[in-house]
Write a structure and sequence with these properties.
The structure is a single chain. Helix content is about 40%, strand content about 20%. Helix 5 crosses helix 12. The protein has a domain of about 90 residues. By secondary structure, it is α+β, with helices and mostly antiparallel strands.
């Protein structure tokens, strides 16, 4: 078993996630390294990618979505993510394997039986084949079919609860925006070379290795919390990890046992921190990957400052890879709120603000600390 400290873990994660070593690669490269970027808020997805790249002028998430090299769909934890097609297909497979729409509580809440969901998959796949439709256009077409009239309100809901099982089975994904309106199409029509949804046992190895390659060391339970809010059966989950065999290395991080992809074990053992300060945007994968409940990353007493009401995840201030505060932009100033009396070197914080400004094209930002 490899034994390391949290300093090594955070140093390795910062580098693997392109925080301390921004990439010259495309938006797709960043999304693939992070195993998707949350895209509930489009500007947050753009920032998550921009702060990890060398060239702020390069095409971003929106351009990649329009080209079909990224897919926007309801993926991890039922939230919208922008993902490269292969990882999207794998994530959808594992989410679908949980069959959450077959649970009585889901049926009671959303009013659709498993047979009706299966019917929706068939109807929506047919309606969207070769087309891009707005939500209203799609819902009108579905309601014109017999047996779905009682689902009108749920189908029109912005939360998309009834549409998520359809996404997990590959029947739809988000298409290019039409003005201010969202659209839907099929992954097969959007993404060149889409190969469909693989079987879960085939999908799991690649997705687990990708996740551990950015957020490891982690346990199967932490992976599932990131993926499905712990909806996958424990025996199935542990079976996926066990099947990877020597491809994973067990790691003891100051008494916490987890796993990492074996190809990164040496890099993890050699990783060192540089005392750097970094600013990341809202809904950033740096905290969503391990989860806001990870007390090594985010002290429990400060969790509510990051994980806010209505599911909002605050922009992050990192020192040595740990979350030590939040920030917001107010006009031409970055207002930093530290969790405690920790002093952040003014020069390092100013450099972090300048890096942020350059990434998002907002030159000349000042900084204020409270």
């Amino acid at each position: 078993m490899l034994s390391v400290g949290w300093d090594q873990v955070f140093a390795w994660r910062l580098r693997r996630q392109f925080v301390t070593a921004p990439t010259a690669g495309a938006a797709e490269d960043v999304a693939a390294r992070l195993t998707g970027v949350q895209a509930q808020v489009a500007s947050a997805a753009e920032m998550a990618v921009a702060v990890r790249r060398c060239d702020s002028r390069a095409p971003g998430v929106g351009e990649a979505l329009a080209a079909g090299t990224l897919i926007k769909t309801w993926a991890m934890r039922g939230t919208l993510h922008a993902m490269v097609p292969e990882q999207a297909a794998a994530a959808l497979s594992l989410l679908g394997s949980a069959r959450t729409w077959e649970k009585p509580s889901w049926q009671k809440t959303f009013g659709a039986t498993p047979d009706q969901v299966a019917g929706l998959v068939e109807v929506v796949s047919g309606v969207l084949a070769g087309q891009v439709l707005t939500r209203d256009e799609l819902v009108d077409a579905v309601l014109a079919e017999p047996g779905f009239a009682h689902l009108g309100e749920q189908l029109r809901s912005g939360w998309g609860a009834v549409l998520k099982p359809l996404a997990w089975q590959g029947a739809l994904c988000h298409g290019p925006a039409r003005g201010t309106k969202i659209t839907f199409t099929t992954p097969a029509d959007l993404a060149p070379g889409w190969k469909g949804i693989p079987e879960p046992d085939l999908a799991a190895p690649a997705l687990i290795r990708a996740y551990l390659g950015a957020y490891g060391p982690a346990t199967p339970e932490v992976f599932d919390a990131w993926l499905s809010r712990n909806s996958v059966r424990k025996t199935v989950l542990r079976g996926w990890f066990a099947a990877l065999g020597d491809a994973l290395t067990e790691v003891d991080v100051e008494g916490r046992i987890g796993w990492i992809a074996s190809e990164f074990a040496d890099d993890l053992a050699a990783a060192t921190l540089d005392g750097g300060v970094h600013l990341l945007g809202p809904f950033d994968q740096y905290v969503l990957g391990p989860g806001t409940g990870d007390t090594a990353l985010l002290p429990a007493e400060h969790r509510s400052k990051v994980s806010r009401t209505a599911g909002w995840i605050s922009p992050l201030v990192l020192v040595d890879g740990r979350i030590v505060g939040t920030w917001e932009q107010i006009d031409d100033e970055v207002a930093v709120s530290m969790f405690d009396a920790r002093k952040v070197p003014k020069r390092a914080l100013t450099a972090a603000v300048n890096r942020l400004a350059e990434s998002v094209g907002a030159q000349g930002l000042g900084v204020r600390v409270s």
